[in-house]
């Protein structure tokens, strides 16, 4: 199961990267339009930026940023300071690692819980992006899924990681 969870974390990170790529392309297009406007507006040919650019970037980045957390956990890329336990016996290292993995899973689920509550509130308020008019609540879904996957990766590492075998 650990390999499947890790593969899913990889897929989430790739999707997050694809979203970031789209954000970069939209930002580049918007910036290019502003530059063209500087040159063409004096000639009576104004070029406008993308309407709703800020709305799109804000909504897209909110999910994309969180989509990297499960991958980082799966690759043990989170910061760890083991200076004080570097020479500790292996059972102590394993116990501490399992405690931190459990705490990480609990924090990820805690964040997912609050994100679900936030999404439900935003949905009940029928909140929309100011310029685009898009409903905001669906953009919570990638973040919630990422937090749940982060917790699953952490738990799978407790039971399937060969780090301290």
From TrEMBL:
<keyword id="KW-0813">Transport</keyword>
<dbReference type="Pfam" id="PF04290">
    <property type="entry name" value="DctQ"/>
</dbReference>
<dbReference type="GO" id="GO:0005886">
    <property type="term" value="C:plasma membrane"/>
</dbReference>
<comment type="similarity">
    <text>Belongs to the TRAP transporter small permease family.</text>
</comment>
<dbReference type="InterPro" id="IPR055348">
    <property type="entry name" value="DctQ"/>
</dbReference>
<feature type="domain" description="Tripartite ATP-independent periplasmic transporters DctQ component">
    <location>
        <begin position="50"/>
        <end position="163"/>
    </location>
</feature>
<keyword id="KW-1133">Transmembrane helix</keyword>
<comment type="subunit">
    <text>The complex comprises the extracytoplasmic solute receptor protein and the two transmembrane proteins.</text>
</comment>
<keyword id="KW-0472">Membrane</keyword>
<feature type="transmembrane region" description="Helical">
    <location>
        <begin position="56"/>
        <end position="74"/>
    </location>
</feature>
<feature type="transmembrane region" description="Helical">
    <location>
        <begin position="136"/>
        <end position="159"/>
    </location>
</feature>
<keyword id="KW-1003">Cell membrane</keyword>
<protein>
    <recommendedName>
        <fullName>TRAP transporter small permease protein</fullName>
    </recommendedName>
</protein>
<dbReference type="GO" id="GO:0022857">
    <property type="term" value="F:transmembrane transporter activity"/>
</dbReference>
<keyword id="KW-0812">Transmembrane</keyword>
<feature type="transmembrane region" description="Helical">
    <location>
        <begin position="95"/>
        <end position="116"/>
    </location>
</feature>
<comment type="function">
    <text>Part of the tripartite ATP-independent periplasmic (TRAP) transport system.</text>
</comment>
<feature type="transmembrane region" description="Helical">
    <location>
        <begin position="12"/>
        <end position="36"/>
    </location>
</feature>
<keyword id="KW-0997">Cell inner membrane</keyword>
């Amino acid at each position: 199961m650990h390999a499947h969870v890790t593969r899913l974390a990889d897929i989430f990170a790739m999707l997050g990267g694809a979203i970031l790529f789209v954000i970069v392309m939209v930002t580049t297009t918007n910036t290019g339009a502003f530059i063209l406007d500087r040159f063409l507006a004096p000639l009576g040919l104004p070029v406008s930026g993308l309407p709703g650019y800020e709305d799109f970037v804000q909504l897209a980045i909110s999910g994309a940023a969180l989509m990297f957390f499960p991958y980082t956990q799966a690759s043990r890329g989170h910061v760890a300071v083991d200076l004080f336990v570097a020479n500790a016996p292996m059972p102590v290292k394993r116990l501490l690692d399992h405690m931190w993995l459990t705490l990480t899973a609990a924090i990820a689920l805690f964040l997912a819980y609050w994100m679900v509550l936030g999404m439900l509130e935003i949905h009940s308020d029928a909140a929309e992006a100011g310029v685009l008019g898009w409903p905001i609540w669906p953009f919570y879904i990638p973040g919630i899924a990422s937090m749940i996957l982060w917790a699953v990766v952490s738990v799978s590492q407790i039971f399937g990681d060969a780090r301290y075998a």
